[in-house]
Amino acid sequence: MRKFDKNLLVIVLLIYLVSLVLFDNAYSLNIVYLTNILLLIVFLYVKIKYRTLMKISYNYILILYALFTLFNFLSCSWAINIEFALFKSITLTLVLINSIIIFNILKITSTKAELYLIPFFVGTFINALVLMNIFGYSANFYQDHRFVGLSTNSNLLAIYLLFSIFSSIYFLIKTKYFLIYIYMYLNIAISLYIISFTGSKKGTIFSLLLLFVFFITHFKLNKFIWFKVIKFLIAIYLIFSITNYFVDIDALIKNINILEHRINNVLDAINGSSTDISTKYRIYYTQRALEIFSKNPLLGIGSDNFKVFEGEYSHNNYAEILANTGIIGLILFYSMYITMIKKMLSQKSKTFIIYIFILILMVMDLAYVSYYLKITVFFLLLLFTLIERENNEKQKN
Prior knowledge:
By secondary structure, the chain is an all-alpha fold. The chain folds into three domains: 1-55; 59-108 and 276-397, no CATH class; 120-273, no CATH class. The chain has 15 helices and two strands. Strands 1-2 form a two-stranded antiparallel ribbon. A hairpin with a 2-residue loop joins strand 1 (142-143) and strand 2. Helix 3 (60-74) runs antiparallel to helix 4 and helix 7 packs across helix 9 (225-243). The radius of gyration is 22 Å and the shape is globular. The relative contact order is 0.11.
């Protein structure tokens, strides 16, 4: 394939990902739709041009997600509310088709896979400008005193920022350029700062966990330890000097205190003594979903039918899938994660942080519903591409 066509695919996928990170909200969702259509048109154009329209690549992630989608469609036959089940199954089908297109572009342009992490840096930067009220209308970017930025809600924004932090860590491990090194630490600092304004418990906990694992593995004792420490200290000094001009220290301290209170509420809830309404509702919905699953363990009650009982989703991906599609649905969906981990272990991948990030994604599913999100499948496919490329390079050497 000509270089021009490869670059064209890279550009349209980057445009789509930037739109997904920045405009996946009720006010500007049409932008995501338009860039998605552009992505489809360019992909079909390239396929037709090279007469490879019928040569569609796929992997085990797509196969398992296709089986999961098919099972959701089948659940319409036993669903309490067929309309709910059918609508969610159609949503999953659209996510699947989109993911197939994206994976084929990733496969064609795998040598430039790191570029697809850049949209998360763009998202961090633009949301930082919004937080600083550069564009005005600051009240429009808050819900219940929690910063939502350009996202649908504060928790989803925190998840995008977590992806941004992972992307920075990946570049920190791979880069040899000091300026990139500085920027990645700056992006981490800004992402954490914004997360503090979202008030997201999972965003805070898992971002700090990811960074903790990175530091204890990256700064392990070897002959380069002092060089890494010096680089790190210089980076921190420069970042502090830059961020000192726009960081509201008082607001940051206040946010940290609020987050501490919210996390303590979760710990109290585990001990059965929480008075936090949000935490109580989440525990109640999870228990209710598991109760429904216990009565329909194999097949569940039908795709998206938990909300027939409670009017909304369960805030727990495991409980949601178990209630709606039973143990079969759960096995199909999480086989994507388990198979990827097994593949990494068999290939003896050296990018340890990817293992940790996959595990974090799995644990994070205890606190939100992710199975129908485009970004969930995309990130799994991107991680798969990075792992495959690392393995191919290892074999060549």
